[in-house]
Structure formats: C-alpha cells, structure tokens
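Hi R.,

As promised, here are both runs. First protein below:
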Amino acid sequence: MLLSLIHSIQTEKEQREWLEQHVSREAVDRLYNKSPEAMESLDREYVEWTREVKRLAGRPVGDPEVQELIGRQMKMNLDFVGTEDIAEFAELAAMDEASFAGIASGTLSSFSPDEEAWLQEVIEYYVQENGFKLPGQD
C-alpha cells in the first residue's frame, strides 16, 4: 500500500497530463489543487478502505458489509471529485481498456489480480442493485 501511494506521488505529472487529454483542464486543476488536509484525509481513507477490501475479499458480492464498504467508497470518490466535475470524469469509465494502457502501466495496485476481479464484480453489483446515477443524469 505504501509503495502504491509513493508511486502515485512520483507519477502524478504523467497522470495529470494523461487526464488533461481526456478531461477539461479546469476539472483536472480542481482535482489536483486540493488542500493538503484534503489529500491527507484521502490517503488515510484509502489506506483504511484497502485494508477493508482485503479483509472482505472473496465474500459474496451481495454481502451487506461488502456493499456498505463500496457505498462509502463511491460517496468518498464523488465528494472528492465534486459534483460539478463528476460527469466529465465518469466518461472515462466508457473508455476501452486500450485507452487506459498508458496510464495503467505507470500505476501500482494495492490488490492482487483476484482481489481486483472480485472488487470489479462487487462494484458492478452495487451499481446494478442501487441504480447508481451520477448527478445530472436522468
């Protein structure tokens, strides 16, 4: 986890440049220009969330504790990105894997491939069951 956070800091410039190719510069500026306190809080929350994912990995996707964890993470992400920019960043989800190849190769994951696959299933289940809609969507 620590290596992932350090690596993320080291590759921030490349990540920012990649985002600016796909999202408005203003939205990227708002994302990266958070206060030190907000960034520290996000780091702490991410570390705790990662621990919880590892603890719960492998449980059924519909497990209430698993779904509550994903709900908290979704809210944290929405709060961090901000409602004014979430639709722009959400468009990244529609991109194919090849589009992420460059940026993904420069990131480290805190999760094993099995944990990542499980997490993807859990998120898909959460969205399906909760009718997750982004602000501004009908």
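And here is the second one, sequence first, then its structure tokens:
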Amino acid sequence: MKHESLLRLNDTTLVIIDIQQKLLPAMNNPERVCKNAGILAAAANILKLPTIITEQYPKGLGNTIEEISAHLTDAAVIEKSSFSCARNEDFLSALKKNSRHQVLICGIEAHVCVLQTAFDLSVLGYQVHLAADAVSSRNPENITNALERMRRAGITISNTESALFEMLDDSAHENFREISKLIK
C-alpha cells in the first residue's frame, strides 16, 4: 500500500468526472454530490487550482451541471468515451501539462468511471485522493463497494472539507476565510 500524505495546493489537480445534466438525477443522493462538487469547484476557482472536467457522451447525457461549470471557466473540459479518464489522450495531456503529482477526484459513477480513473492514475504514479462525499452511483451498494476497492488499492478516501483544509494548510492562508464560507 502506498504511503498516504496530505494534499498540497501547489501539487494538486482537481478532476471532476461526468457530473452531467442527464446523468446526475439518476444518482443516489444527487443533492449531496451537487453541493460538495460545487464547493470543490468554487474553491478551485478561488485557489486557482488546475481543474479538468470530463463529460461522458455529452450529446446524450448533457454537459456538466451549471453549479460546477459556472465556477470553472478556465477548466479543461474533456469529452470522453472511455470509462477511465486516464485512457483518453486529451485528458492525459491536460493532466501532464499541470506538472502536478496529486489528483483530487470527485464525480459519478463511483463504481465505474471514478474507480477506473483512480486505479489508472495510481498505476501511472499519481497520488490519488477521492472526495467521498462528492461521488455517487445509482445504487448505494455500488458506492460502498467502490470506496472499499479504492481504499484497498491505496487511494486516499477523504472528503470535501478535509481536502480543502489540507490544501490551505494554515488558517493564516490568504483564502482561508473565503474557503471557510463555502463549507458553512
């Protein structure tokens, strides 16, 4: 198992996987995913955190929901057909361009695209963190299974608030108050 470490702001890329207009409503607890992924998106904007958004077959499933995309006008948006983002050359190019070694993931579905991406990024040498309160699947049992599998594979299972405060590192950070307001 890989050594777990804290997220560092200057070494992290946020990856938001397939939180799309027609897909999100079918998920278990879509409000929680929308809220927490929205917080991560807003924080990424404030912190100037490199962000990659993926969309699985947007022609049929729609684009990324407004609660996320409105915050991230500079994010790379990658259309994909592969379940794992890491099997898409445009995604890998965008990720490598950032020259960062940690990846914070949120998105849907936990047991398909999120899990496969986390596994593949880990194999590629990235330190992968998952905001578990910002992922979902249609079936709650699939979420539980995916989280267990990722944990066993050395993926760091975290949450939105922990991830943000790890990256801030100190309450003296210039963006601490602004980020704290997002959590409340």
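A quick note on the second one: The longest strand covers residues 127-136. Let me know what you think.

Best,
J.
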